[in-house]
Amino acid sequence: MYRASSEAGTCDLHATILACRGLRYFLLVDYKGGAAFAECTGLPHTVGLVTDLSPHLVRRALASLRAELRHREEVLAAAGAKDLLAMEGRSDPAAPPSLVIVVDEFAALAAEVPEFVPGVVDIAQRGRSLGLHLVLATQRPAGVITGSLRANTNLRVALRMADEADSTDVIGAKDAAFFDPGFPGRGAIKIGPGRVSRFQCGYLGGRTSGRECGPDIEVRSLGFAEEAPWDIPPDPASAGAGSSEPVRDIERLRDGIALAARAAGIGAARRPWLDALPKLLDLDDVRRRAEAAPPGGADAAVVGLRDEPEAQRQTPLAIDFEEVGSIAIVGASGTGKTSALLSLTASLSATTSHPVQIYAVDAGGGALDALSALPTVGAVAPLADAELVARVLRHVLAVVADRGPRYASARAGTLSDYRRAHPEEPRIVLLVDGFAAFRQAAEAPLPIPEPSPAQVLGEIIVRGRSVGVHVVVTCDRPAAIPAAMSAGLQQRYAMRLADRHDYAQLSVSADALENAPPGRALTAGGHHELQFALIEGAADHAGQAAGLERIAASLRADGVQQAPVIRNAPETIPLRDLDSDAAGRPAYGIDTRSLEPVGLPGHGLGVVSGPAGSGLSTAMLACVQAAGRRAEREAAMSERILLTFTSDGLALAGAWDRIACGEEEVGAAARELAGALREKRGAPLVAVERPAEAEGTRALPELVALAKAARRSPALVLFEFETGTAGAIWELLAALRQPGWGLALQPDEGEGQTPFREPFGRVRRADFPPGRGFAIENGRVVPVQVARPDGWPDAACELGGDGSGDPGNGRKECGILYDRPANAGLTSE
Q1: Predicted TM-score (pTM) above 0.90
Q2: Does the annotation flag 70 for ligand binding?
Q3: How many other CB atoms sit within 10 Å of the CB of residue 585?
Q4: What region holds the FtsK domain (predicted)?
């Protein structure tokens, strides 16, 4: 231990000691940024330089040094030596060199990181017989020298001190307080309890202006005959002899020692202190590094590196879902959570020993869309696409439900057990990027009586592990994950967080991640640093997407099968492509969840509701044609009657046996039909188009009576109802409320008066294409897509004059000219 005031020659003393003791290995610690050891780092003996230590780096340093102690103990034990001196006395080539730990400005370090000094002193005390030695230097000794430090520093040096108290504190004498400031390097030394001696430190900062010309010296080997002269390399400083800036002595000495080490073929010294994890890692490099000793199970995914200073090594980081179940990655924005998901998916996909299928819900910035290129990925559902999100979750939950009984019958407790007889069984991984946003959207009220997406995800997490189905979620804070779900996420990785208090919830040290680069993490409750690798080492998503494209091409070339693809329901379905029967009913569309046909009831009151442009007339005609197809197949045709207030709508479809158009005809036909329905005479199919135009006419009360009579009649009566017109025909709306069956097309959360009492939740009209909505029957709500009737224009070409998507009179649409006279073919008979 040596102390000195400023400008007393501390740095010169450092350099002189290190240069003259070039028989050992040095580990240098400088709390001033590394300036004190600038020239010494080039010595072949120097095995590390550490500056600006944080508490986390201090713990890493102490762990590395303790590992060095264990290593030396193992070497001595294998050699049967009690200490390093015994090995050196036997000239054992396995004897490790002495390791000298040199710490500059340790007083500042002790103030910033109090645990460093006692920790490193303890290491030096235990490592003395193993060849570990400690040199401490500071300019401010007051209050730093503790009892344990004084007891374990046998040699103390004091250069010029600021006052007598400091000198006495270091060497037990006042001498160092009276050194002449004009002689830097003048000092006093005390060894153990001995006397204080004065000395002058050597100076290596001098410069040689030119190379001195001495006599030529020739060296030959001595033998029976004269040997050839030795080839002596030139002085390494000779190259700079003619330069304007002369070379300093310390630089000459350093370069000469380094040249001698290279000439002697001396390898690099064993480093007890590994460099910190790199900020950027290439995933391919890490995977190749893991090939020699694959970590984890057969399909463990290598995703980065793990720093293990207590073992003096850095090993591949592998995620073995068989062992950890489901995973949460928690970190603030910009910490590399999404990149970690991309790397995990790429590594899982490249692990071809067992099949894997991956599905993703992207509630983040959309970067997961690049995963769609991989054949192992079945779907990437953006959060805005609620239908696809729900479909993906239902698919994964269906896999869990299907595997449970199969695994139980096979007496398989895990996927690995089941694969012994069925090696083709894939592991399923569901990614959810941005869990907080997903949870907020997923907990909105649903229009159908089924679990919310958040509940489905929770069930997958709880039940999926034993059947090889796993979930990986990312979020910005640990509190975003509810406690019930957090219990199933048994492996959690903490990245840099926005709030220091959040680190405590993950049981990790805040100082380890405060200034961490993207991709740096700690395992919850652990202390090992982790660095997630990047696809092709690219920090930008564009580069990672390009890398995924290349991986996908390679996988397809290797014959990797495409995972089952999950898609949304189609927006256009030709009615002729559907089976005419759906569970004994006429099929008019599909259930957008199961993609199975949905059927129309055979009797009662039905209402097709929606705003203008939602496909009202298209849906009405699809229902009429569906009933007609079924009736034709069963040879049981019923009369089809249209009541309308316009001549350019459904009247043009040509599917009617009777058409009543206008106030008089509609009123008379409605009166007639209401009486027949009350008396149970006949079972026609009746369609009422644009009843809102009956406002203020004598036909309105007749339509109200028809609606009431239809509820318990054997006939099916369909009313078209355009939302937004309820105020004009409130009497009819009251009669149409709570029909036995109905269609709500393009519903909206903020919609006013509708015929249905069932809530549809937080739905937006913009999320529904024409013909998409909900079917309501006896309180049951089913999401549906209505088919496009035969002979009706495509949705992309519908330009109806009322905005409903129906062709207008005299308009040319989709190549068809509708030029029918206003009253042609319309009759009440």
Answers
A1: no
A2: no
A3: 17
A4: 1-168, 314-504
